[in-house]
From TrEMBL:
Keywords, in A-Z order: Cell membrane, Membrane, Transmembrane, Transmembrane helix, Transport
ABC transmembrane type-1 domain location: 73-266
A Pfam family annotated for this UniProt entry: BPD_transp_1
InterPro entries to which the protein is assigned, alphabetical: BP-dep_ABC_trans_perm, MetI-like, MetI-like_sf
UniProt family annotation: Belongs to the binding-protein-dependent transport system permease family.
Cellular localization per UniProt: Cell membrane
Protein's name in the database: ABC transporter permease subunit
Membrane topology according to the record: Multi-pass membrane protein
């Protein structure tokens, strides 16, 4: 039996929606299981049940209050926010210079920036540790801001440079005719147009700083300066043989919620920013 065109279109939509549903379930299930585990205690943690049966909020209270995860949340938010602010401020000015100003060696600088962004963190850990100690930033939030900015800057500069190259030169020329200086051109002309790309790169830098573990574990030793990933990794049970899965999952859920909220709030700008610069003109 030969299918009609309408039936073929319905069949294609069915497979597309089915694939999207399967992918969504695979992506959402770990977070859903973490939420269920965070609401259980005792022997309930080891029962195979994918529907909520009990609601024990003590795990959240204990994780945020008694184990210091609440303070670590503030530390992570402070470090990630400052890192994003520095990266965007430096990146937009560097992107303007690399995209608009013609000078010898510009291509080599961009190539170097791309190569630096490919370095694994563990390859420069010892060097960063010596730099942090030399600057007197060991066991301080400043050490994390320095290291996170170092690794986030190459990516943000590269993305913003690519987007700025796609902007028409006439915008800059019109601003110069009107008497605008360089800083006004960057902040008043280019920055509003680059809003989607700034949001995308800023959010990706924020997520990277929010989730980073290795530098935070190496450079911070005091409980009051720890960030959330390290604080969760340091959670201990009543004995050395016990892992407080309820507290760990509760803290993980609390840490994940801000990222989900940011993505939902800026989702339209994120999509625009990801496709920005793909077509010139």
């Amino acid at each position: 039996m030969k299918l009609t065109r309408q039936q073929r279109e319905l069949g294609k939509k069915f497979w597309i929606y089915l694939t999207a549903l399967v992918v969504s379930v695979i992506c959402v299930f770990p977070f859903y299981n973490a939420v269920l585990t965070s609401l259980r205690t005792g022997q309930e943690l080891f029962l195979t049940n994918y529907l909520p049966t009990t609601f024990h909020w003590e795990n959240y209270v204990s994780a945020l209050g008694e184990n210091g995860v609440g303070r670590s949340l503030l530390n992570s938010f402070l470090v990630a926010s400052i890192t994003v602010g520095i990266c965007l401020l430096v990146s937009i000015t560097a992107a303007f210079a690399l995209a608009r100003v013609r000078f010898r060696g510009r291509k080599y600088i961009l190539f170097t920036i791309l190569c630096v962004s490919m370095f694994p963190q563990v390859a420069v850990l010892s060097g960063m540790f010596e730099l942090v100690r030399f600057m007197g930033l060991y066991d301080s939030i400043g050490s994390l801001i320095l290291s996170y900015t170092t690794f986030s800057l190459p990516f943000t500069v590269w993305v913003l440079t690519t987007f700025m190259r796609s902007l028409p030169v006439e915008l800059e020329e019109a601003a110069i005719v009107d008497g605008a200086n360089l800083w006004v051109i960057i902040t008043k002309v280019f920055a509003p147009i680059m809003g989607p790309s700034l949001v995308t790169t800023g959010l990706l830098a924020f997520i990277g700083a929010w989730n980073e573990f290795m530098f935070a574990l190496t450079f911070i030793i005091s409980n009051e300066n720890r960030t959330v990933p390290v604080a969760i990794g340091m959670l201990q049970g009543a004995s050395q043989y016990e892992l407080p899965w309820g507290h760990i999952m509760a803290a993980s859920v609390v840490v994940t919620i801000p990222i989900i909220a940011l993505v939902l709030i800026f989702q339209k700008r994120i999509v625009s920013g990801l496709t920005a610069g793909a077509v010139k003109g």
